[in-house]
Amino acid sequence: MNEQVTIADQEARTRALDPTTSFIVQAPAGSGKTDLLTQRYLVLLAGVESPEEIVANTFTRKAAGEMRQRILQALERAKNEQSPEKDHERHTWELACRALARDKERGWHLLENPARLRIQTIDSLCTALARQMPILSQFGSVPAIAEDAESLYLDAARNTISELESEETWSDAIAYLVQHLDNRLDKLQEMISTMLARRDQWLRHVSDPQHPRLERDYLEKALARLVTSALEALKRQAPKAYESELSELARFAADNLMGTDSPITLCEDLYGYPETQIEDRSQWEGLAKLLLTEDGTWRKSITKSQGFKAPSSTKDKAEKAHLTEMKNRIQALLNSLHDEDAFRDQLALLGALPPHQYTNEEWETLQALIELLRIAAAHLELVFTEQRKIDFPALAQAAIRALGESEAPTDLALALDYRIRHLLVDEFQDTSFSQYELLKRLTAGWQPEDGHTLFVVGDPMQSIYRFREAEVGLFLAAREHGIGQVPLEFLRLSVNFRSQQGIVDWVNQHFPNVLSASDNVAEGAVSYAPSTPFHPLLTTEAVTVHPSLGRDDTSEANQIVSIVQQAKRVRPDGTIAILVRGRTHLEKIIEQLQKANLHFQAVDIERLAHRPIIQDLLALTRALSHSGDRIAWLSVLRAPYCGLTLQDIYTLAGDEHQRTVIDLLLQEERIQQLSEDGRSRISRILPVLNTARLEQGRCSLRNYIEGVWIALGGPACVTHETDLEDANVYFQLLENLVPHQRNNR
User: Fold this and answer.
1) pLDDT in tens, 474-526
2) How many CA atoms lie within 13 A of 201 on its CB side?
């Protein structure tokens, strides 16, 4: 079976290694995308003058590290091992041997100098470009990058509103917008913040107030094109076999609904499907009202609300027979349309289409919004300058400015055109508008068959995550039209090497119903591409569905714990993954897993700093590092290894704010005012803290804090096994932060 499966997309995999051609590769989950990128990189290494001519971009440091590691491992094996037995491994080995021969010929010494492999994140590339042209990038030295820039957006939004409230700058347009929001400035602030996070999608359109794109006629023509394009797609999906029957039934329904405000009445003169001009939209909407529910699904039954009265409502036999016939015909038509998913999806889309024209009120609101966003974008730049921080879109824009325009490239762009021969981009479905523009600028001077190649790989089916404002329509557009001046040959991988056949078959069966029936660049809609399994079907059931109707987090968490416990009984040595929609969904699940004493790791989900044991260690670190940090010292007294009551803490320090807590602990008269339990606790920890203060600076920070924590009895106070692991991670971070530092008083 495996040999046949391998053949399924082997031609595409082989074609992707042509070093003279640019490709865009759709590689779904489990299709061996990283291996393909590794092989492509090795092929290119065998033909370049220097390894720096190849630049590979990923979206995470982890992915960049993994790719670098695989390439170095392949070169190491080519140097030290015989040809592997497995075909796939042997092919990679052969490619690495050729790359290693080129390495020896040119004297690169890549295994001794791995830094010459230019494998990096796109953000790292943007940083490097901005640094090389500090004036053009308008940054000077590149500021720190905020992983979560929400606080910066909120600051800019607040500053915008503060400025607009002054008499000098408050305009009629802004006043109108505030009135439109019912004078809710908090709502306006939230809206501004949200829009600033997405400014790479709109700022380039509104930055020039005189640009023709902002004229009402231009925008309304664009809306009209959007509507007519959707109507054309709808008519293409409309099944010809039912055209005559549907139009006759629509006319019948319209006649019965005359005098009502139902859109079905607009189908009174419909013979065949409507055309695709703006004026035909209303008839299509009438058909949608006739055939679809409010949820966009086919109607299961038709009533008088859709123009089909019940036959029992009349005593006339002929009329009754006619009503019965028409009722049966519309029901038969609905049954026939049941599998016409593409037609249904396009019909349902009508409700989401915007009007093709603005009302005067809407236009005034839009103009006010554009003016406001320009001001907000300027305030965000000021916030960046004040706080010496930027977000990812600002970094990408700085890199774009450093490269100049396509028609007027900067010296940097010209130099890169000479130095970069091959560009590889991983996870291309996660590309934002700014990053897409960056790729266009980097490849602006490339010509066909001039030795340059662009290789982008990704899976548009995974773009539902909208990573950092990614736009899947860019993947679809690149597939159809290339990127800038670089045409891309499209390849699709289909073999799944990760999952057994039962899982692949289940996904192939159900996911076409989740994703769109067809690709659509304008809508960002992606259809499902089926996979072919590499691993054979197992005897056990591949997928079991445990339905949970409604939202009951506690009940759901209990069920998940039961499923985990059952799975561990069946396979005690197996690993189990729990995937959730968002972090908040995990709260109850983590709580129940802890109650059941089930060991787990919540990687990138539960912040280490939010764990109680880490908060206690942070307080201890701050207290021992600064005797004047009152909050930290009070937190140490409240921590489990001391456990002083709030009443005792108030008795100790509530009336004295000028002296440090450690000084108060040394006042015998104050200690005597504490409860008997409080005195006992202080007598146990005070000698440890006094000794710690004397030992400060005599060992590394990690050993210092860890030793004091152990002496205080911290390990004995943990409630879960994972707490000790979290503490060890914290101590390791201290060691990495200041590996050789000595704390001097």
Assistant:
1) 888 899 889 988 999 999 999 999 999 999 999 999 888 877 777 776 666 77
2) 13
Q: For residues 76 and 36, what is the distance between their CA atoms, to the nearest angstrom?
A: 18
Q: How far apart are CA 732 and CA 703, in angstroms?
A: 10
* pLDDT score for 745: 37
Cβ–Cβ under 8 Å, residues 250 and 284:
no
Q: Can you spell out the DSSP letters for 384-425?
A: HHHHTEE-HHHHHHHHHHHHB-SSSB-HHHHHHHHH--EEEE
Residue 125's contacts (CB-CB under 8 Å, 6 or more residues apart) are 55, 57, 399, 438
Tell me the two tokens of residue 671: 């200690």
- Of 454, 449, 447, 396, nearest to 420 (Cα)? 454
User: What domains appear along the chain, each with residue ranges and CATH number?
Assistant: 2-123+393-513 (3.40.50.300), 240-339 (no CATH), 553-595 (no CATH), 609-737 (1.10.486.10)
Taking alpha carbons only, the member of 218, 189, 176 closest to residue 362 is 176
Q: In the structure encoding, which two tokens stand for residue 579, read together?
A: 């995937």
pLDDT of residue 519: 74
Tell me, what amino acid is at 397?
A: Q
d(CA 522, CA 524): 6
Question: What Cα–Cα distance (Å) separates residue 151 from each residue in 222, 372, 377, 383, 391?
Answer: 35, 19, 15, 10, 11
Two structure tokens written together for 256: 């019965």
Token pair of 501 as six digits: 């056949």
Distance of CA 528 to the CA centre of its chain: 19
The confidence score (pLDDT) of residue 147 equals 77
* Regions of the chain short of the pLDDT cut 70: 1-7, 132-142, 166-174, 314, 405-418, 463-471, 521-524, 602-607, 721, 738-745
pLDDT computed for residue 168 by the predictor: 61
Handedness of CA 89, 94, 96, 97 (dihedral sign): positive
The DSSP code sequence of 182-242 is: TT-HHHHHHHHHHHHHTGGGTHHHHS-TT-GGGSHHHHHHHHHHHHHHHHHHHHHHS-GGG
* pLDDT value at residue 173: 62
Alpha-carbon gap, residue 82 to 426, rounded angstroms: 30
Predicted local confidence at residue 493, as pLDDT: 93
H-run or E-run covering 33: helix 33-45
Q: Single out the residue of 528, 518, 222, 479 nearest to residue 349, CA to CA.
A: 518
